[in-house]
Amino acid sequence: MHRIQGIALVVGTFAALSAQAQSWSPPPADKRCPSKWGATDERGAANYMNPANVLRASKLIKTGGVIELGHVLSSSMPFFGARRFEIHTKRTSPTLGTNKRMGNEEVVMTELGQVGTQFDMFAHQGIDGELYNCIKSDDIATRNGFTKLGIENIGMLFTRGVLIDVAAAKGVDMLPSGYEITVADLQQALERQGLRLERGDAVLIHSGWGKLWGVDNARYNSNTPGIGAPAGEWLAAREAMLFGADTFAVEVAPNPDKSLSLPVHQIALVINGIFLLENMKLDELAAKKVYEFAFAVQPLKIKGGTGSTVAPVAMY
Amino acid sequence: MHRIQGIALVVGTFAALSAQAQSWSPPPADKRCPSKWGATDERGAANYMNPANVLRASKLIKTGGVIELGHVLSSSMPFFGARRFEIHTKRTSPTLGTNKRMGNEEVVMTELGQVGTQFDMFAHQGIDGELYNCIKSDDIATRNGFTKLGIENIGMLFTRGVLIDVAAAKGVDMLPSGYEITVADLQQALERQGLRLERGDAVLIHSGWGKLWGVDNARYNSNTPGIGAPAGEWLAAREAMLFGADTFAVEVAPNPDKSLSLPVHQIALVINGIFLLENMKLDELAAKKVYEFAFAVQPLKIKGGTGSTVAPVAMY
Amino acid sequence: MHRIQGIALVVGTFAALSAQAQSWSPPPADKRCPSKWGATDERGAANYMNPANVLRASKLIKTGGVIELGHVLSSSMPFFGARRFEIHTKRTSPTLGTNKRMGNEEVVMTELGQVGTQFDMFAHQGIDGELYNCIKSDDIATRNGFTKLGIENIGMLFTRGVLIDVAAAKGVDMLPSGYEITVADLQQALERQGLRLERGDAVLIHSGWGKLWGVDNARYNSNTPGIGAPAGEWLAAREAMLFGADTFAVEVAPNPDKSLSLPVHQIALVINGIFLLENMKLDELAAKKVYEFAFAVQPLKIKGGTGSTVAPVAMY
Amino acid sequence: MHRIQGIALVVGTFAALSAQAQSWSPPPADKRCPSKWGATDERGAANYMNPANVLRASKLIKTGGVIELGHVLSSSMPFFGARRFEIHTKRTSPTLGTNKRMGNEEVVMTELGQVGTQFDMFAHQGIDGELYNCIKSDDIATRNGFTKLGIENIGMLFTRGVLIDVAAAKGVDMLPSGYEITVADLQQALERQGLRLERGDAVLIHSGWGKLWGVDNARYNSNTPGIGAPAGEWLAAREAMLFGADTFAVEVAPNPDKSLSLPVHQIALVINGIFLLENMKLDELAAKKVYEFAFAVQPLKIKGGTGSTVAPVAMY
Q1: CA distance A75 to chain B (A)
Q2: How many residue pairs bridge chain C and chain D with CB atoms within 8 Å of each other?
Q3: Where are the alpha helices (DSSP H) in chain C?
Q4: Which of A248, B55, C45, D70 could be a cystine partner for D117, CB 3.0 to 4.6 Å?
Q5: What is the pTM of this model?
């Protein structure tokens, strides 16, 4: 707690905090569709998954170390809006057989794709009624899932992961509330780490905000630091496979430009076919300075789902 | 469908079908507890996960090929008993911001650990009130999960995977209903494939039964072929990390010995701390004859959960 | 079962079965709005509930007899579409106190307003985006209920109930599949019973179709007999408070005019502010020839709900 | 709010607050079983429902006035423990037919029998493993409901209702936290109102605690005033059909005798077959001084359920 409060002292470092208010607007449909993978594509940046990419990632496993990047799922997590995660134990039946077998299970009720450490799929976000590849949401929505752009199309992503430790580059434990990470911030942090991005990378951004997870859930879900639209567009131009962060939105939220609502969600999911990975647990990775690694995530294959709770890892 | 019906013709190959009825009973508590990893252990065979094991697995990624081993999750899957998987789409709000962002999500209601391709954890099964390491189910059960032995203790398992193609060794597309796979069957199939098991392997058994998935769900969930108690004990003695199969129970069910109720569940989960991976999709792996590979599975970190729906893969 | 099969023999009675195909279309907005209770009304025919009406009903309780009109709610009911009713028992905690108290409860997952014997509220149905009183569905829909026209506005309805036994008037146990009940049918049945409708009545129509409930659920939910648009309009002109029946739709479904989708739902809920009560259990009422009675129904006060499962009764 | 704070001033009236700590223990099985309605009875005090009782109640409807006694159900209600009430709107499909019909519905996830204004059934509570009529909970519990003592056995209760306004008799708006209502309190309040109890009454106790509902939910669910074991036994001896109150437990909770856990639940449900009706809305009834009325409640017929959310009324 002491460290969290201490952050107020270093806000001075971030003098430009609100100076760079954006004026971003989504490109018109004919500038964003068809996607670079064609008009019928539903996999977006998952197309970067190919044998060469898998081999590239596997060669980064050098010590056999594994670091978990997913939080435990429970009803005490921070939840956005009215979302819930409820588990109801179904206790054992009377024992069965001469071997006296007994069994337990549970029923779970949750916005499965949108709680905890989570992977956002294309059905999740749109621009004025249109999703990735300009598919109309109304055309593919049913009461029980989406007929296109569902998370079942993705499967495991295994690729080079890069941690960009912006908090460390700024010399703080945690970026301040509402701080918008700029292109320069990303560049400086990468330079400090001696790394550059490659096509198909899983780009994970460490803000330190994850320290609030389970400690101050209300604050965790408000005024989160994160990348803004310019940084999102810069990362998209680097051809990342996904953007992840230790925050609920990956991007700065609310956006310093009050007229914008989560523009990086549109830049990633709708315009560039890049996935978002929210609420990651990045503290151990940052503490161990593991900046380059094999990254693996297995979204559940929920038919027609807008995302999936996940338990990703770094192997190095 | 033609191939499925053709199976009746080859049942003669399995003349010993019911001859080997078992008379197995679980060992007393003092023979099975404490576990080989100590009295307080909650991870069982996940203890085989260590840097050496990770490196062993990573070296099996040679071509960069990835094969998915998980089925799509939907309400039309075969379900055991009264289990369900229901997804209810929560459609977009009015658009937000000048960027006209819209969002979709869904609420899911399901026995999350016990539907679809699923990973069984120790809280799931017991012997007369006792779970792994002789922990009493009543002592750790709450209405909202288990205080010990929950799936959140596991994290990703990344290890050498071995497919034992028993169907191929028998020369059939699909083992017949209720066929009990014997130790000899496993040995012959391994010999045919030129492989031997090692400590910490993920052992996946191809029965061909998965052809029924989504085609004849009622039959899929009845009279499944699978390993019996002797084969389960033989594999446990090989120190496997997990047993998987393309069936709902991994083991033969119901057991040919009518007095027994799913004894391999007890042998694996309760006595030996080995995980079960049910309802796998193994057809592509078998068709491509990929018998040895890096196996990766990421169970969700459900606090106090008895298992997790998963989307595992083979990388080779 | 014998009686059900016997119905085929009497279909000849219904020779005009498909002759009266309709050509109905909803009135334009300016002909249906504002409602007769004003532009801001959300209670529709529940406005007939007033002290005089309550006294009128209470005077019909002459013998003290009570007949239940609701089916038992269970997972084996007929369900329309993908609806479900799932109950998951949450078993006792360890006993508490020196008095060793123990408790059980259950979690229920269901389309609570739209399963079993159910009461339809105005948020449930519309005409091209508009609900009762021309309120736009999009204007009042949230992800967690409707801000207007929710079932919490209604409370108990206690009024004169009238059973119109059309099956008896036709001399059959059960009306045939797809039979459209006409105005003449209603008039003849009322005349036979020596009754006439009054303003504010709960009008319950006995078709005999309820014999299929729990016996042949698939048939129950298909080709149901019921009133058509002309009979619906005739009843609306009688100023009924609600229309009920022993079928899933109250009205004939599918409509003999294949171009129409459940027009009586629009006539009742959207145009006239009259409630629908579906899947009633009317066999006992019909068998006892209780045609006039005090009718009571207590819809749950679900904030923003489109309806409520109910357990109504007749008292006579 | 002013009135709520004012209550502190009148606590002096309740000087005996903690003096009457109880030492109650449940009677042994042979003193409480079989119930007065026989060993196989599952309806308990619902057996008081008979034609004479219905007529008795109907004669109390004199003015046609109706007062609702149920709160609105929403996710912002006070919830006990981890219970929830979640409603997820399922928005309209594309319009259907030339009549452009559209429909909305919702899925609800809740402990349906144990949230909001609720009716407790016998499967809900026990004494050391035994429920009403000494039926063992383990013998009738399944994962999907109870095979006996479920709420589907009850149906509507329509009987004389009596409001005992203890708060008014004490001259306060709201009884103080943790106040145990005594037999003398009930007698004095009844005498003040000029009423006496009769067999089969629905006895509703007004404490004023309901003022906290939705205003201070945390306080509402803690240290609630209510009847203690002696008052519960006195009411049971009067042969009430049900006990209701404007509190979450009907009884004082926690009990002043710290060794006891909700003894009135056992006195009512387990020993005497009397129902409990919790979280009632009694303010209007008290304000209008309607002390005797026809009481009607329609618990949902949930197969094997431990209770039901309800929307009861008083008619007078």
Answers
A1: 9
A2: 332
A3: 2-6, 29-32, 51-58, 137-140, 166-170, 183-193, 217-220, 229-237, 263-265, 283-287
A4: D70
A5: 0.85
